[in-house]
Amino acid sequence: MSDLRTQDAASGSSSGSRRRTWAELLAGRVERQLRGPGRGHRLQDSAVHLLRRHLNLDDLLLEVEGPACKTLCLNQLGDPEASANLSSSFIGSALRDQASRLGVPVAVLSSQTVASSIMQICSSNGEPTHRVLLNAEQRKKLSSVLEVAQYLLAHSMFSRFSFCQELREVQNFLLLEAVWHLHVQNIVSLQELLESHADTQAIVAWLFRDLCLLCEQMEVSTQDTDIAQAMLSDFVQLFVLRGFQKSSDPRRNMEPERMAQLAIAVLRRMLIFALEALATGLQDESPVYKAVKCWFGMFCGHTFGRMMSTDCPKRFFSHTLTQVLTHKPVLKGLCGSQSGERKARRLLRHSHPHLDPWGPRLNLQNIFSLRGESLLAHTDKGRSVTLFVMLSPEELIGHLEEVLGTHEVNWQHVLSCVSTLVICSPEAQQLVQDWVTRLLARAFESCDLDSMVTAFLVVRQAALEGPSVFPSYADWFQASFGSTRGFHSGSKKTLVFLFKFLSDLVPFEAPRYMQVHILYPPLVPSKYRSLLTDYVTLAKTRLADLKVSVENMGLYEDLSSAKDVTEPHSQAHQDVEKAIAVFEHTGKVPVAVMEASIFRRPYYMSHFLPALLTPRVLPRTPDSRAALIESLRRADKIPPSLYSTYCQACSSAAEKKPENAALGTKTEAICVEPLGLLAAALRELRTTMTDPTQYDVFSAQMAVVSERLSSALGLGEEDGSFEESQVQVNIFSPELEPQDQQVADLLLTSFCQNLIAANGFTPPDRQGPWAAHFVTSLCGRRLLPIVLTRLCQLLRHQGPGLSASHVLGLAALVIHLGECRPAVPEVHVASPAPVKSLPLPEFLSSLLTLRTAEASLFCLKFCTAAISYSLCKSSSQSKDILCSCLSPALMKKFQFILFRLLSEARGPLSQEDTAGPPWKLLCLPSADWQRAALCLWKQRTFQELLQEKEFHLTYRDWLQLELEIQPEFDSLSDMERWDFHQWAIHEHFLLKPSEAGGCDGDMQTACTVLVDVLIDFCQSLRSYNCLENSDLVLSCTGNRDIFSRLQEMAADLEQGPVAPQRCSPSQGHFLFRVFRRRLQALASGWDVAARLQRQQELLVYRWILLGLPPSILVGSPQNKQPATPDCTEFFHLVNSELRNFCCHGSALTHDITVHFFRGLLNTCSQSRDPSLTANLILTTCQTECPIVVTSALLWWPRLEPELHTRWRRCFQGPLPQELQRLWEAQLFGKSCLSSDLASPPPGPAWVSAAALHFAIQQAEETRIKSQLEKLNCQSEELLVVLFFFSLMGLLSSHLTPHAVDFLKAVDICAEILRCLDKRKVSWLVLFQLTDTDGGLGQVLLRLAPDPYIRLLPFAFYSLLSYFDEDAFIREDAFLRVAVDMYLKLICLFVTGETSAVSALAGRSQELQGQGDPVGLIIKARHFLLQSIPRCPEKSFANMAELLATSGHCDPEVSAALLSRHQAVSDDDLYQEPHLF
Predict the structure, then answer these.
(1) What is the pLDDT of residue 36?
(2) Which terminus of the chain is more exposed, N or C, with fewer CB under 10 A?
C-alpha cells in the first residue's frame, strides 16, 4: 500500500498547480459514470485487479490487525524449518481469516501467497539467472509450498486462474523445474500456464531458451540427471500430444488452436536449432553438441511408451521428417534448367558420400543413425514404441515420395534418410526397389528427367550401405537394363532417353559407375546397337583420360571411395587383404574369390593370384594368408605350376635377408592353350543364341566346341560308349583334377549364359533343340563323371551361395540331363555307406539337401526353377513325356519344402491357375521365389501331374525328408515346427487314403510307419558314424522332434479315444510287431558282421522303448480274472535279443529295468487289485523271463526308493509279496557277507543265489575269501546256482574287463568250487545245460547271454588249476564233461569266437597266459592226456557217441580215449565172472 500511495502522490503533483482532495477526485468520477446494472460488480473487479497488480503482500498483512502467529505463518510459508510445526489446515485457516479482513476471496489471496512464495524460492539463490534446475534447498522449500497448495486446492481455497496471472508477470524469473513440479503435482498444468500468456512469441522464446539450457545441464550435472530427464520427457510428451492431436476438447473455454500452435512452434524451433547446429560441425565437448544429443535422445520408446494412442507420435514424426527433408533445400528443382541439369549431375557425383552411420561424430547421418538405434528399432530391453513402429517402412517410403513431389528438399538429408532406412529396416530393401521401379516407369513413360535422377540417386545411395542391406549398383543396373524386360526396351525413344542421360553424366561420373555401365551394358536390339556403342566409346575415352582400366574391377571394389584405384595390382592387393580378413572371420574361402575363379578368370589369374602369391618368408606357424592359399590349392583354384613357382620363390626368400627379398615380384600365370581355345569356342557359341532360327550355325559351332573339348581332355573316339564302364561319384568328398574342373566350369558357365541369353528373346518351348544338343555333348564316358562331380560340388556343397542366374541355368541343365537317362548307366554313389546305384534323375535330385535353412531355401528355388522350366519346355507334349523328364524325388522335395515353408500351400486350392508356369517370373531381375513357388503350386498342369502315383508325397516320404532337417539350423522356430508336424500328421497324411500315400485314418498305421522310418534313419550313417558308442543313436540330428510326435501318438493310442481300437492280443502291440518283422529280416548267425548289425538295431529299439510310455512293456490288465497283464511280447524280446546284446552278464541294463517296473506300477494303478497284479507279473517273470528278476536284484539300491515312494503314494499299503521277496533276497545277500547272523534265503534258490552273487561282486576284494567261508551252511542248489553266476562273472571279466576284475572273479569261482568239492556237491550239470532241460536248467539258460553259454568251455578250463585231483575217480561224468568242453573249446577257437577274450592276455604282465585261448587249449590237452589213463571204466560211458561227432578236432586225444576204452573192455573179457 505504501508503494501505491507513493505513485498516486507523484501523479497528483504533476497534474496541476493545485492539489485536489481525494473526495473531489471521487466526486468528479462519480459524476462522469453512468448509473446502470452491474456497475458495482465491475467496480469490485477493477479494484481487485488494481490491488493484484500493485499489492505488496507483506506490507498488507502488517497493516491488517490480527493474531501475530497467523501473520507470521503466512510470511514463513516457503520456509520448511519455520513452518515445520504448522499444519496445512492451520495455514488455510490463517488465509481465510486474512481474506475476510481484506474483503477479497480466499482463493485469490491463497494464489497470490503461493505465487509469491514460489518466486521467493526461485530467486533465493544468488547463482546466475541462466538456470532451469533447482538446488536441493530450493527443492525442499518448494515441496513444502506445493504441499500447502494441494491442501488449498482440495478445499476449494485456490484459484488456478489467479495463480497463472500472478506467475505470468514474473515468468522470465521462474525456473523451469518449478513449472514442471506445478504440472506433475496437478497444481496447475503447463498448458494452463502457457495459454494464460497473451504473447505467443515471448512464451515460445522462453520455452526454447529454457529447454536448451535443460539439455545442456543434463549432460553437465550428474546429480539431477533423473529429474532433468523426467522433465524433458514430460515436456516432449505434452508438446507432441497437444500439438498433433486431431481436434481439441470441445468442453474447453480456451481457444482450441492456441496450445497446438504453441507446441508446434516450440518443437519446430528446437528442430531447426539442432539441424543448424549440426550443419556447422560441432565439437564433441561443446555445450551445443551435448544439448542437441540430449534433445534427439528424448525421441525413444520411454518417451512415447506411456501414450495411449500412437496417432499423435505418428503425426509428429511425419511432420519432423518433413522438416528435416526440407530444411535449407540444396537444389530448388533438379532439372528445371540447363544449370539445374549441371547441378543434378554434380549431385549424382558429390552429394552422397558414404557417411558412417555408427561413427563417433554427431552429424546429420548420425541423427538418423541415432534414431536408428534408439528410435528406429525395437531394442531387446523392451523399449516399446519406436519410429519404425510408429511409421512403418511403407509409410516412410510413401512420405518420402510425397515430400519429393511437393516440396523443395535438401538432397543430402534425403539420401541420408534413404541410407538409414535400408540399414535399420529389413523390409526397406524391397520397398526401395519398388519405389525405384515406379520412378523408372514414370521417367521412361514421359522422359521425366527428375524421376530418372531421383531413381539413380536413391539406388546409388542405398547400394553404398553394402550388399547385406541392398543389392550392389552393378546388380541393380544389370537387372534393370540388362534384359528385354527393362523399361528402356519399349521403343527407340526410351533408348535414346537412357543413353542421353548416361552420356550427359560421363564428364561428372565416377569411374566405378562407368565401369559398371560398360561391363554390364544395357541390352539393346541389334539395330540400335550404335547407341550403346557410342556411349561405351565415350565412357572408355573418359576412363582412359582418368587412367582407369575397364576390366580391372576388383572383387571388393568400394564405390564410395572418393578416388579411384589407378593401378590394377593395387586393387588386387586390396582384394587379397579383404579376402584374408573374410577368411579369418569365417574359416572358409570367400564366395567372391570362388566366383571370380570361375566367372572372372582373367582378373583372377592375372591380378588376384599374383598378388596373393607374392613370395615371402613363410612363418613357422601358418598364418591366415598361408591357410587361404592352402585352401585354394586343395580346391584346385591355383594351377600346380604357379603354386610350385610360389613355393620355390618363398624358399629362395627364406635363404636371403628379409629386407632383400623380392616382395614385389609378380608371378605370371600360365595360360593353358587348350582351355583358351575351348573358352573362345564357347564365347562364339553364345553369339548364336540370339537367333533361334540359326540352328545350322549353332550345330556347326557346337561341333567346334566338341573338338576343342576333346583336345582339352584328351578324349578319343570311344568316349561316347558306356557299355563297359560305370559312372561313380563320391558325394561326400567330390574331387576333380584341376584341368577337369576348369573344363567343367567353362561348360556349365557357357550353358547358363546361353540359357539366359536365349530366354531374353524366346520362351523355352520355342528355343529349338540347342539345349538338348549341348547336354548330349556332356554325356560322354569321360566327361559325364566330371560334370556330375562338379554338379555335386555346386548343388550339394555350395548351393546356397549360387546366384539366381546359376540356379536357373543349372536347373534347366538337370532337366535335360534327366532326359538322357536311357542313354547313360546308373550312377554309383560312393560314400562311407555301401555303394548304391541310382538312375541319373534320382541322383541329381539327391544332391539337394534340406539340413539347414539356407539349404532348404535353395532347394525350393532349384525345384521351382527345374519344374517350371520342364513344364514350360514341354507345354505342347504329352503327360507321359513330361513325367519321364521329371524326377519323382524332385517333385516330392518340392512338395515337402513348399508345405514346410509356405503355410498358404497347406490349405485346399480355391481355384487352379490356368496361366502358364512361372518361368517368366523367375527370369525377372528381382524374382520373388516364394511367389513363383506358389504360382507353380496353383498351376493346373502341375496339379494334374500330382495325380500320378509316382509323384505322390507319401507319409513315409515326408518322414524321411523331415528327419533330414537339423532343428538348430531350421528356418522354422520350435513352435512353428510343431504346428507344421501337427498339420502334416493329423490333418494331411493321417486322413488320406493309403492309395494316395496316407494312413486311412489309422493311428497305428501312422505310428508303425514312423517307427520304421525312424529306425532306418538312425541306422544310416547320416545319424552316427561310430558303432561302439550307443549314446550316439540318441544324438542323430533331426530325429528328436519326430520322436516327440511318436511319443504323442503313442500316448493317444494308450489313453486317448482311439485306445479301444488297439490290436487284439494275438496281433500284439504295433511296436513289437515292427521289431519282430525287422529282426526276422536281419541275417542270423554269430559272425561279427551279423552281431554288429543286430546290436545296432537293438540299440535303436531300446532307445525307442525308453522314450515311449512304460505301459507298453507290461500292457494293460485284461478283463478276465485274475487280471494278468500280457507281457509276452516284451519277454520274448528280452529272452531272444536284449539278453544277448543289452545286458550286464546276468542282468539287463538299469534303464530298461527301471522302465519295466515303472510300467508295472502304471499297470497296477489301472487294476482293481494292485498287489495281486504285481504278484502275478513277477511270478510270471520267474518262469518266463527270469533275467528281469535278477536285473531288479542288481539295481535294487537304485530301484527300491522309487518303488516304495510310488507304491505308498498310490496305494497306501505295503509292497506286494513278490516285491517284498526281492527285498528279502537283497537283505539275504548282504547278511551272508556280514558278521551278523545270515537271514534265511527266500525262495526260489536261484533268486537268493543271484542276490548273493551281486553282493559278492560289490564287496571288498580283501574280505571276499573270509566272507565266502560262510557259504558252507547254504543249500546245495543255492551253491550250484551261485557257482553258475560266478562263472558268468568270470566270463564278464574277459568280455567286459572294466566291469569285473579278472583276478577277483577267479578267486570267487575258486572259493565256491572249493566249497562244492568240500561238500561233495556235483556241479558238472552246469556245463551240460540244454534247451530241453526243464526246471532249473531252463531258468539258468535264460539268465545268461548266449555268447556266455557258448564260452562255458573257456570258463571250465580257466579253473583247471582249482579242480580236485580225485574228480575223475569220484564222478563218473567228469571225463565226459572235460572231453566235451575241450572239443567245444577247440571249435570255438577255430570259428574265431575266442577272439573276444584273447585281448586280455596282453593287457597286463601279471595276466600273461590267463586269457590266451591257445595256451588254455594246450593246458587242457595236456590235462586230458595225463588224466585219461587214470580214469575208471564208468567214465568212458557214451564216449563213442561224443567222439563220433567232434573227435576229429583232436585225433590224438580221440585215439587216447579209444585206446583206453578198448583196453578197459579187453580187461573185462579176461576177468572171472562173479556168479555168486
Answers:
(1) 52
(2) C
Query: What residue type is assigned to position 1125 of the chain?
Result: P
Burial of 812 (0-12, 13-18, 19+ CB in 10 A): buried
Q: SS3 for 913?
A: strand
Per-residue H/E/C for 721-781: CCCCCCEEEECCCCCCCHHHHHHHHHHHHHHHHHHHHHHCCCCHHHCCCHHHHHHHCCCCC
Helix (H, G, I), strand (E, B) or coil at 827: strand
The total of other beta-carbon atoms located within 10 Å of residue 1232's CB is 25
Q: Is the peptide bond before 832 cis (omega within 30 degrees of 0)?
A: no
pTM for this model (two decimals): 0.56
* Dihedral sign computed on CA atoms, order 960, 964, 968, 970: negative
Contacts of 271 (CB under 8 A, 6+ apart): 320, 323, 324
Give the span between the Cα atoms of 795 and 855, in whole angstroms: 9
Q: What is the dihedral of CA 60, 64, 70, 73, to 10 degrees?
A: 10
Between 660 and 886, residue with greater pLDDT: 886
CB 1002 within 8 A of CB 919: no
CA dihedral 281, 286, 288, 291 (to 10 degrees): 120
Chain segment 573-626, per-residue pLDDT in tens: 888 888 888 888 777 888 888 878 887 777 888 888 988 998 888 887 788 888
* Per-residue pLDDT at 1400 exceeds 70: no
SS3 924: coil
- The DSSP string of 548-584 is --SS---TT--TT-SS----HHHHHHHHHHHHHHHHH
Task: Label residue 15 by pLDDT band (50, 70, 90).
Answer: very low
H or E element that contains 1420: helix 1413-1427
> Collapsing DSSP states into helix, strand and coil, what is residue 964?
coil
Contact predicate 719/782, CB 8 Å: yes
528 Cβ neighbours under 8 A, 6+ residues apart: 492, 495
Residue of 408, 421, 479 lying closest to 450 (CA atoms)? 408
User: What is the rounded CA–CA span in Å between residue 137 and residue 21?
Assistant: 50
Q: What does the block give as the cell for 794? A: 555346386
What percent of the residues of the chain are helix, what percent strand, and what percent coil, each to the nearest 5? Answer: 70, 0, 30
Q: What is the pLDDT of residues 993-1012, one digit of tens each?
A: 999 999 999 999 999 999 99
Provide the 8-state DSSP code for 939. Answer: B
Answer whether 181's CB lies under 8 Å from 146's CB.
Answer: yes
Q: How far apart are the C-alpha atoms of 937 and 898, rounded to whole Å?
A: 8
Q: Which of 1066, 1094, 1065 is nearest to 1078 (CA)?
A: 1094
Beta bridge mates, 727: 827
Contact between residue 563 and residue 547 where contact means Cβ atoms under 8 Å apart: no
Taking all residues of the chain, what is their mean pLDDT, rounded to a whole number? 77
Amino acid at 1445: T
Distance, CA of 150 to CA of 767 (rounded, Å): 89
Q: Is 1094 helix (H, G, I), strand (E, B) or coil?
A: helix
Nearest to 1079 by CA among 1126, 1026, 1135, 1002: 1135
**Under 8 Å between Cβ of 678 and 709:** yes
d(C-alpha 1378, C-alpha 1161), whole Å:
47
Beta bridge partners of 838: 827
Distance CA 403, CA 409 (A): 8
Contacts of residue 1226, defined as CB under 8 A and 6 or more positions apart, other chains included, come to 1193, 1196, 1200, 1251, 1255
In this structure, the number of other CB atoms found within 10 A of the CB of residue 1440 comes to 12
CB atoms within 10 A of CB 1473: 6
The number of angstroms, rounded, from the C-alpha of 1161 to the middle of its chain's C-alpha atoms is 41
CB neighbours (10 Å) of residue 183?
19
Total count of residues recorded for the chain = 1476
- Whether 212 and 298 have beta carbons less than 8 Å apart is answered as no
